[in-house]
Specification:
By secondary structure, the chain is of the alpha+beta class. 17% of the residues lie in helices and 41% in strands. It has four helices and 14 strands. The chain has helices at residues 8-14, 34-41, 80-87, 108-120, and strands at 3-6, 44-45, 49-53, 56-60, 63-66, 74-76, 94-101, 126-139, 142-144, 150-156, 167-173, 177-182, 190-196, 198-206. Strands 1, 2, 5, 7, 8, 9, 11, 12 and 14 form a nine-stranded mixed sheet that branches. Strands 6-10-13 form a three-stranded antiparallel sheet.
């Protein structure tokens, strides 16, 4: 997997960014609004069910709320046994995920980080969809917050996306850590990337 990971201050220094990126160092809003939570609850999928991703059915291995409408489907592709190993889950803990669209009105601080990172990527870079994703676990109907590990997720690009462009993902995590993830698949209509444990904001960026 190819990735570049930097703290906001490092990103600003190495990519000659404006000082606006410093807002990412320690400032991040991760809470979903009540309307987002309602939307997620209406799009719950069980584990091991097919989800249409850019016109192709992909079996997702993790149950959860697949509520993002700006993209053409999302599915976790890491096998369940590997998911549990990656996340360090104990007996009785079951992985879960929620995925929903976000924007500056819903997640202003996270979007400030996204916009600064996209600007640093150079002329022509453009975020075509932005998702909030929470990768966690459940145990006896209780939510277990996860901090380590990752799983692979495939996402269908928006219907109006330019398939001749190259796509990557800007990930913003609590504390202002910004990660640029390259597409791990060869399908021009999808992007596959690693979702980190916990909550994060993920922007699909065209260049």
């Amino acid at each position: 997997m190819k990735l570049k990971k930097f703290l906001a201050a490092t990103l600003a220094a190495t990519m000659v960014m404006s000082s606006a990126m410093t807002v990412c160092a320690g400032y991040y809003d991760s809470s979903a609004s009540s309307s987002e939570s309602t939307t997620v609850s209406e799009d719950v999928k069980a584990a091991n069910v097919p989800i249409a991703v850019a016109g192709t059915n992909v079996t997702t291995t993790i149950a959860g709320g697949y509520a993002a409408k700006s993209v053409q489907g999302t599915a976790v592709t890491t096998p369940l046994a590997q998911v549990k190993a990656n996340l360090g889950l104990k007996d009785g803990q079951v992985p879960a995920i929620t995925i929903y669209d976000t924007d500056p009105a819903k997640s202003p601080a996270a979007m400030a980080c996204v916009n600064a990172a996209v600007e640093a990527m150079g002329a022509g870079a453009e975020a075509v969809a932005v998702l909030n994703i929470n990768l966690y676990a459940k145990e006896n109907n209780n939510v277990v917050t996860l901090e380590d590990g990752s799983v692979a997720m495939v996402t269908g690009l928006p219907k109006n996306a330019d398939l001749t462009k190259t796509y990557s993902v800007v990930c913003v995590q609590p504390g202002g850590v910004v990660t640029i993830l390259e597409d791990l698949d060869s399908n021009p209509a999808t992007v596959t990337f690693d979702v980190q444990a916990g909550i994060g904001t993920y922007a699909l960026v065209a260049q």
